């Protein structure tokens, strides 16, 4: 019999609200107020999210981010920068002590990413887990999609989803980006390079490393198509039954306060 998880499909939210809601769900789960959760979301406006430890200086072209109409937000999870535009973002919130959850971060990625794997397969794409040989090569790139890590998803050797994880208060929060379309020219405008030659070389190399759903699909997929495929994918991959969940006014107010006091502040976003 499948375990029941909550399923939250939120309307497009600001970057700060999206990050605050993921953190609030983690808090509520740690307090025993809600069972494990799968959440789907999109961004309005689009944004470049930074890993918790990621440095901005010399890596991110902040002026370019705003020039393109995007916002900048720092995630509570690690990893490198991700552009959230024309994509589906997911998050999973589950206790570290859950019987299905391995103790190591890498193996927990493998378990939680089964839902992502099945989602791609529901779209007719033969995704596989990335299993690097030996240690991952060091990279100076600030771009998340420049290199697949352990158990991230690849199709034909190219990365199709990027995920990040944190463990706080006994709870695992994993969230990830699934690009439906990817404007590589815009993406590479957001990062700083020593010169144009280095930038173009990185841009060319990136073509061989990352790809979006609609570059792989015979027919263009909509956000509805992707949500439908991935919801079924998570149900199968995690062997769970998803029950719709809606925020109360009290819960929404708590998220708004967290967004305002943390994720909207320059002190949080520009702190590294």
Automatic annotation (TrEMBL):
Q: Which Pfam families match?
A: LplA-B_cat
Q: Which domain of life is it from?
A: Bacteria
Q: Which UniProt keywords apply?
A: Transferase
Molecular function terms, GO-annotated? catalytic activity, acting on a protein; transferase activity
InterPro entries per record? aa-tRNA-synth_II/BPL/LPL, BPL_LPL_catalytic, Octanoyltrans_LipM/LipL
Q: Where is the BPL/LPL catalytic domain?
A: 32-242
GO terms, biological process: protein lipoylation
Q: Kindly give the CDD domains that the UniProt entry links to this protein.
A: LplA
Please report the name of this protein according to its UniProt entry.
Octanoyltransferase
- Origin organism of this chain? Salinibacillus xinjiangensis
């Amino acid at each position: 019999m499948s375990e029941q998880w909550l399923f939250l499909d939120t309307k497009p939210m600001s970057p700060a609200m999206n990050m605050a809601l993921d953190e609030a769900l983690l808090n509520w789960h740690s307090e025993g107020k809600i069972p494990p959760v799968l959440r789907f979301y999109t961004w309005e406006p689009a944004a470049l999210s930074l890993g918790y430890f990621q440095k901005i200086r010399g890596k991110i072209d902040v002026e370019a981010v705003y020039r393109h109409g995007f916002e900048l937000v720092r995630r509570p999870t690690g990893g490198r920068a991700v552009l959230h535009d024309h994509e589906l973002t997911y998050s999973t919130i589950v206790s570290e002590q859950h019987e299905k959850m391995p103790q190591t971060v890498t193996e927990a990625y493998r378990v939680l990413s089964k839902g992502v794997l099945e989602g791609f397969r529901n779209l007719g794409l033969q995704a596989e887990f990335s299993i690097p040989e030996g240690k991952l090569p060091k990279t100076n790139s600030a771009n998340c999609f420049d290199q697949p890590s352990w158990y991230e998803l690849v199709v034909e050797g190219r990365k199709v989803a990027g995920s990040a994880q944190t463990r706080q208060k006994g709870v695992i929060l994993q969230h990830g980006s699934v690009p439906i379309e990817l404007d590589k020219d815009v993406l590479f405008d957001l990062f700083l390079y020593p010169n144009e030659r280095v930038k173009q070389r990185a841009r060319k190399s990136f073509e061989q490393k990352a790809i979006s759903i609609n570059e792989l699909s015979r027919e263009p997929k909509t956000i509805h198509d992707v949500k439908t495929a991935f919801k079924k994918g998570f149900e199968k991959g995690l062997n769970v039954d998803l029950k719709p969940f809606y925020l109360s006014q009290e819960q929404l107010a708590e998220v708004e306060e967290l967004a305002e006091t943390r994720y909207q502040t320059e002190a949080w976003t520009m702190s590294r």
